[in-house]
# Entry
Amino acid sequence: MNASDKLEILKELLLTDERKYAESITKKLEVLEETVNKRNKLLPKVEPIIDDKLEEFVEDIPKTLGPTITAALKEEIANSQDAVVEALFPIMGRMIKRYVQHEMQLLQENITEQINSRFTIKGIKRRLKAKSAGVSEAELMLIEQGASKLHQLFVIEKGSGIIKASLTKDNTIDHDMIAGMLTAIKSFVEDAFQSGEQELQQIQYDLYTIHIQNFSQYYIAVVLSGIFDTKTQGKLEDLLLNFAQHKINKTDLTNQQEFSNKLKAYFTNEYI
Amino acid sequence: MSISKKIVLLGHFGVGKSSLIRRFVENTFSDDYKVTIGVHILKKSVQIDGTDLSMIIWDIEGNEKVQKTRNSYLMGTAGYIYVFDASRPSTYESINEDLTYLKGLLPNVPMHLVGNKVDLIDLPELKKILTKKNIDCKYFASAKTGDNVETIFESLGKQLI
# Structure
């Protein structure tokens, strides 16, 4: 055994751990090199990080870029109003045209329906009314189109919001829920604005109006569409007052079915 | 015979009033906590002793103090349930004071005091604590597991017909 061999044996004995460590590092480096250089190995590692970052970026857009974009858009629109009008005109024009067409079609359908009903009791009544008022039947038909149409009517106990009677021409959600929520809204408004003895009388939403008429133990909520002007409101108030004074009795408040039948018999005209 | 009655749920925020109602009305539970804003109204019809009872349940937003509840929401109440969180002592520390206040507002109106979230606590231990505090609570429930929920509403319903 020469000196070189002895040195090798000595190295073997003394540096075993270091060599193993160096080998493991070499292996790790190889794996890393392979991961970095091979797309199919790198992608699964990097993709989730990129996805997270992208998600964060998208979430942050409204905060970071939103104000800048809005300001830029505002400035651009202000500076080139003619161009904006030109760009929007065809779209808006088409939308308005379609809306008007749709409404005209509805009007035409309703008038046709009315003409077809000329020989019904309702039609005969209209003709008599036209004659007595000295106007044409066509005029009356047009007036009817703009008139307030009664969709739903609820008699609701004050405070509890328990429904006592209802009359409905449309299918809607549960009447008890409507009565409850209307009462909650009414209570909230009356409480929030510390209105004392004053009570909520009307709610308007889009093409509909909810007229609320208050009595001592209950209130009546009427859902209407069409033109609801002061004259119509007065007419409806008189109608409801008359119903409350002459038709409602104490037993009605305890028998929902009978009370609802009474409502149905009284409010036969769907227009106010 | 068919009747409708207004039932109100009261208590601090986060005690599980909405969860109890959802469990009773829809038989569901969600861990997502959604604060009730204002009031939410639900309905459940039950038959008790041959009577069809429509329970119109008013889920009123929770407050730190029951005195902050809008009195107008309590008008016409036929029965109410005062809920506390069995796992949160701050929600039952002032119960007797709160109940005295409510009894003043709603005299002779049936009431059930309910400890909710009992799945999270040691019930005998809680009962000891409540006794020490002079709190007379007969109903314990878990909206999560559904334990006792139906019984409580039906028991109150019986008092209303």
